[in-house]
Amino acid sequence: MTDPAQFRLQDFLPYLLNHAAEEAGQGFSRIYKDRYGMLRTEWRVLAHLGQFGPMDATRIGIMARVHKTKISRAVTALQDKRFVTRTLDGDDRRRATLCLTQAGQAAYTDLAAIAQDYDRTLLARLSAEEHAGLLDCLRKLGGDLPKD
Amino acid sequence: MTDPAQFRLQDFLPYLLNHAAEEAGQGFSRIYKDRYGMLRTEWRVLAHLGQFGPMDATRIGIMARVHKTKISRAVTALQDKRFVTRTLDGDDRRRATLCLTQAGQAAYTDLAAIAQDYDRTLLARLSAEEHAGLLDCLRKLGGDLPKD
DNA sequence: GGCTAATAGTTGTATTTGTAACCAACAATG
DNA sequence: CATTGTTGGTTACAAATACAACTATTAGCC
Most buried residue among A18, A67, B1, B87 by CB atoms closer than 10 A? Predict the structure, then answer.
């Protein structure tokens, strides 16, 4: 029933998704890398804090779907860059709330604007309907984002 | 004109693409990893040889959009697994043609069948139109595949 | 032919990542 | 209120990756 001979690598979703993600991500990653020496996870942590406000590492990990060790290292790097501060939670002293510094906020604002433009140029290849349909499909495939 | 405040991370294409790609790729990668101890690039090399027949490393790198050092190491690993053979080209002795062994062919056939099923389960969440539209968008975003 | 440049592929090394083990601090149960 | 289990987060070490430098072979050109 499943005939391996008719498998088409070019239509295989993980393959196509990966190419598209790599292609789309590369251009932008060069930006935060060149401008701020950030790695992808650092950008993500910054973006989450910029978008959703202060929160702890675990929360970011869940929202961004990133393992806690990666978050931990990204946070250390962002602290070194003076982009985030950690303040221990009084009630539960295992936990620490992460917060953007002014410099971190500025970097986020800068990158968010660039990201928007970047997104627009990516989407220039697509019609509005295609765009909408694509986001829809990607959300279905990516699993539901934990919304809060 | 580009107001950073209205940047929506959840709609940012590189972010969505990456999530979807990771989510989609993970399940399948566990399969070739568990069954054959292969890494992603090894699976890709195997898949290209299985799909398109014998070719040299450079060609695979171009088609799969993978750097030559990664290809080189994947090929070494596949040779160690007795899945591919290298035969030096007579005309140009820098070049070597890679070819699946019987075991390599068998592994490819096995994985191709699984990949097909896997793809189907991924696509179960999408309608036929969505599927078609998605492939279309991903091809546009991923850049044109070098077809030969 | 003899020189320089280009190409196929490999290797070295510094970063990055993944996995597991770990240390606190807190929670729950007896 | 001890003891066992969880949870937030870090660290250690192995594996994988990126990037540059390298070898070997071919190509172009005077």
Answer: A18
CB B77 within 8 A of CB B42: yes
The yes-or-no verdict on residue B146 having pLDDT over 90 is no
Partners of A56 in the beta sheet? A97
Q: What residue numbers bound the domain in which A75 lies?
A: 11-142
Q: Which single residue is written with the structure tokens 């932008």?
A: A28
Identify which of B8, B19, B135 has the shortest CB distance to residue A11. B135
Q: Is residue A87 in a domain?
A: yes
The spacing between the Cα labelled CA in B93 and the C1' in C2, in angstroms, equals 22
Report the alpha-carbon distance of residue B62 to residue A7 in Å, rounded.
Answer: 21
Q: Can you give the pLDDT at residue A144? A: 64
SS3 at position B56: strand
Confidence of residue B119 (pLDDT cuts 50, 70, 90): very high
Q: Is A82 on the interface with B (CB under 8 A)?
A: no
Determine if strand D comes within 7 Å of the CB of A33.
Answer: no
Contact criterion met (CB below 8 Å) for A48 and A64: yes
Is B135 domain-assigned? yes
**Which B residues, 29 through 68, put their C-beta within 8 Å of a C-beta on chain A?**
44, 47-48, 51, 65
Residue A3 inside a domain? The answer is no
Query: A32 with B138: CB under 8 angstroms?
Result: no
Specify the CATH number for the domain of residue A103: 1.10.10.10
Alpha-carbon torsion (A17, A19, A24, A28), positive or negative: positive
Which range (A3-12, B6-15, B62-71) has the least confidence?
A: A3-12
Q: What are the residues whose beta carbons fall under 8 Å from the beta carbon of A82, sequence distance 6 or more?
A: A101, A103, A104
